[in-house]
Each structure stands twice: as C-alpha cells, then as structure tokens.
Design goal:
The complex is a heterodimer of chains A (111) and B (118).
Chain A lengths: L8 E5 L4 E6 L8 E7 L6 E6 L4 E2 L4 E4 L5 E6 L8 E8 L13 E6 L1
Parallel strand pairs in A: 1-9
Antiparallel strand pairs in A: 2-7, 3-4, 3-8, 5-6, 6-7, 8-9
Chain B lengths: L3 E4 L2 E4 L5 E7 L6 E7 L6 E7 L5 E2 L8 E7 L2 E6 L8 E8 L9 E3 L3 E5 L1
Parallel strand pairs in B: 2-11
Antiparallel strand pairs in B: 1-3, 3-8, 4-5, 4-9, 5-6, 7-8, 9-10, 9-11
Classes of the chains: A mainly beta (111), B mainly beta (118).
Chain lengths: 111, 118
C-alpha cells in the first residue's frame, strides 16, 4: 500500500510548467515526501524530497501544504525528456529504509 | 548523484537455467541494497532488502530459494534467479541507499536488467 494518491496521467505542453499533485492525507509527522521518476525501461531517478518546508533543486520544486496532507511537484519548464512516470512516496526512514512505489502519474510532455 | 550499475542489461535464457544479475555502487559504499521487479505497465515491487554481510530480507511471496541474493561487499550485490521459468521474465532493478543522508530515503537505482526466459 503506497498510501499516496496521484492522478493516473497528465499532459503538459513543452516549455510550460508541469504541476504534479499528490495526496498523502494520512502522513505522519516523521514521514518525508519523496519524488522519483522513471523514464521508460530505465531505473527510477530521485528528484527531490521534503518534510515540511518547500524545497527546490536543479530539477524541480516541491510545494508541501501547511497541513502536509498534499504536495505538488513542479517542473518549471517541461521538456520532452521529462516524459516519464512520476512517483510520490512517503518515507519515514524507520526500520529497513524501504520505498513503496504506487502507480504514479504518467506525464506526457507534448511538443 | 551516486551511480549504480547493473550487469547484464538484457539476458535471454532457456527455461530451467540460472541467471545471475550484478548490482554495483560505483562511487559510494552501500550497506543496504534493494532488489525490485517490474512487470510491463506495472509499478516496481520490492523483492528483498540486502544488507552487506548478512542474509537478505525477502518480501512476502518472494521465494528465497528461487531468488538468491548475496551482498558480499559494500559495493556489490548479486541476484541469482535459479531454475528460471517464463513467468520469471521481468525487469529487475536494484538500488542502493545512503540512509545517513538527510531524510535517508534517497535511493540510487541501477538501469535495470531485462530478463526473458524462453
């Protein structure tokens, strides 16, 4: 059970911002939100993670709501190479450090 | 970021044979590595957690005698699919973690191995 909810698919025009939502309404106080993506037939790639504050790195921005029940991954200028399945994952770091992948969102960037 | 390699990238074998897949962390030491399996159009499913120098921990429903995992060093874990059958055909992916980083959930994934059993 991934315990996060994401839309099955989304389209985004090339050059525009892609905003990928994730619902994690039952998240615990010690759980981080991690985002990974998987381009077809490749291993997943780490994108970003956060706990409470918004985060930004060279790949994306992560906006977490104040109540932490949902978050949005933002790719500021989507390119065709950003077409992938994006996974939002809750992670507490306790025990065995496992990641549980849900079904993710298939993002298609359209020329 | 850290790099994880897998070898081979593709393998085709006959039913009943065994196949070994290697997972290496190239520029960092990984005390913990994970093995996942992914069927077409499905998400990744964790098969086992591999800790250096100890026995792997298998997820429910994964046969430990069929999927042998060895984590003999801090940079190498191997998965051996024994007596492979066509239903074992899948995309096998390993990852390595550095749990002491902030958050601890950043895993570095290999490129995957496509196994086809005829």
């Amino acid at each position: 059970d991934a315990k996060t909810t994401q839309p099955t698919s989304m389209d985004c025009a090339e050059g525009r911002a892609a905003n990928l939502p994730c619902n994690h309404s039952t998240i615990s106080g010690n759980e981080y939100v991690y985002w990974y993506r998987q381009i077809h037939s490749q291993g997943p790639q780490y994108i970003i993670h956060g706990l409470k504050n918004n985060e930004t790195n060279e790949m994306a921005s992560l906006i977490i709501t104040e109540d932490r029940k949902s978050s949005t991954l933002i790719l500021p200028h989507a390119t065709l190479r950003d077409t992938a399945v994006y996974y939002c994952i809750r992670y507490s770091g306790a025990g065995s450090y496992q990641l549980t992948f849900g079904k993710g969102t298939k993002l298609s960037v359209i020329p | 970021g850290a790099v994880v390699s897998q070898h081979p990238s593709r393998v085709i074998c006959k039913s009943g044979t065994s196949v070994k897949i290697e997972c290496r962390s190239l520029d960092f030491q990984a005390t913990t590595m994970f093995w996942y399996r992914q069927f077409p159009k499905k998400s990744l499913m964790l098969m086992a957690t591999s800790n250096e120098g100890s026995k792997a921990t298998y997820e429910q429903g994964v046969e430990k005698d069929k999927f042998l995992i060895n984590h003999a060093s801090l940079t190498l874990s191997t998965l051996t699919v024994t007596s492979a059958h066509p239903e074992d055909s899948s995309f096998y992916i390993c990852s390595a973690s550095q749990p002491f980083l902030a958050g601890g959930g950043e895993q570095f994934f290999g490129p995957g191995t496509r196994l086809t059993v005829l």
